[in-house]
């Protein structure tokens, strides 16, 4: 059983000293999927033809990574440490590194497999709704098939040391990466990095990030678990700076170490609170992503020990610090490490005498926002983590700490009732924002889906509406601190782009939800200047990152804009100072009383938001046709800057007819160098539910066959993808290809050839197989 063919997901992740294989399928297919995985691990074929294809794919991936800014930053970071030869080792692989002798390569792979792929080197984790006894039986059956354990000689412990600082020339916003070595064995595997990540990225009022944003020094931060080996690790805090100014970097570094000093004073209650936040983030992931995280490190410690926390923090000393200054400034020193060419320069940190900021840490009770006229009750702490016995289990094969994951959120088997609601007049409950000018607000229609559990309110532009990219980032900046404050009280506020549409999603208990919505309305009535500046910079950062991304991802990121009529009007022009947006709202859960209160508040939700005027020079280049978009492609042509596009629709013989007479839009993206890429988006024709389900069924059938034909048999390149895709209020089947040796026209023709072959294949498909695919679709 192929998990991908059955509508599941499968992937593999390779890190410095281990590889983890994952797959996710519906529960009934877990046993055959596990048998297929075990067979692959125990008896790989190493077919010469497949091996040659994989060498080509790995080489194509390596050439992509040679210009990937993130890869170059990671290589430069490891270059600044000594203590392990693996820090310089070429790990990605290339055709030149493998050599032309395919039989020797095949024998080397067999030797490697025999040495490492046995029970003593493996751990199996299973997760699912099955009873524990059933999962254990599956695990034991799998392990019985593995080669028996051999003597494993433990690797000698490492002692990593920082070699100094450097500046790196790389695309993207200016960044400062502060790296540290964790040399104490197992210090990096006890869950504290997960708590540290939550503390570092906390955006609540009074925290480190709030202080840095208030002083216009920093636009973001992330915690990076960079490298592990023989009981040692390298971790880093990377700050995205507001400007490429070393003085800003020095201020950020000074505040960071002041924050570190204050972490030692956290109480058990505070640490337990941040550990719960880490588990909550873990809960929000898919089961496959949860297993991927558990394969390398738990989200938080199983038990809070203040002394252990303080010992772990001892590794973050200035004496062991390595600074990597990342900017687009030219650097003259070429360095080759880990197979990549880096452009490095000396970096001398600037001395500052700023006093350390006095920061605030929380234990689960936190006021949302100091807004005039808004005084919410103190928020309660989040409930203790639930580890239900039925919904989610992880079964370690060999003895170790309990790695069971918490019960994932589930909507249950509720009857769903949809209704559209407008509030009735209620003189006893006047709107809180009665003084808000009517020209700034437009009544929002609220739809309600009856369900049990915590209520969730989602606000989005009405279908066909458009919330500009800059405006979306400004909203995100304006509500960043309130969202973090709400998280400390057990609620959740997200402002993010999903499927090409900006959404505002709010989740809290019934008593809190209306008050939080009114707070958001008040916050958006007059956007702070700082939020506008931060949103403007965030959009520029995203645009610069997009330009440096691989071609197929650039096309996918542009697809929502090409599909949106209003987006096309704004493409290439500066935004107006004010942008009107028509909102729609959906309430999932909650009762009639909550629905009534929210509907009243939504009558005064701002529909006009201040937006900064951006320079035209900051707009990406693209050609836009005045037709509905069905496909986009990009390829290098005779000129280094040239590109072309192609498009099509499904063959007429497909079960669901394509809209007749609809012209296909053609769009291009220009690039200086790199691979050629094409995406072909075929929107569903609309109509009744049966037609839409048939369109989804087509994608499910095409997905494994498209990969097999173009990736395995034709070996067109690294990216071959087919999926049912939602973006910008449109749904359809998406084909995505990227190739180092085929142009856009050739990729388009091969996609058309696949669709033409599928006409006969669909007609000849056995009814049993079609029924299986239909059952998989209903089980998704």
UniProtKB/TrEMBL annotation:
Keyword terms of this UniProt record: Hydrolase, Metal-binding, Metalloprotease, Protease, Zinc
Entry coiled-coil feature ranges: none
Gene Ontology molecular-function annotations: metal ion binding; metallopeptidase activity
GO BP annotations listed: proteolysis
Domain Coenzyme PQQ synthesis protein F N-terminal lobe stretches: 174-324
InterPro entries, per the entry: Metalloenz_LuxS/M16, Pept_M16_N, Peptidase_M16, PqqF-like_C_4, PqqF_C_3, PqqF_N_2
Domain Peptidase M16 N-terminal: 7-63
Protein name: Insulinase family protein
Source organism: Acerihabitans sp. KWT182
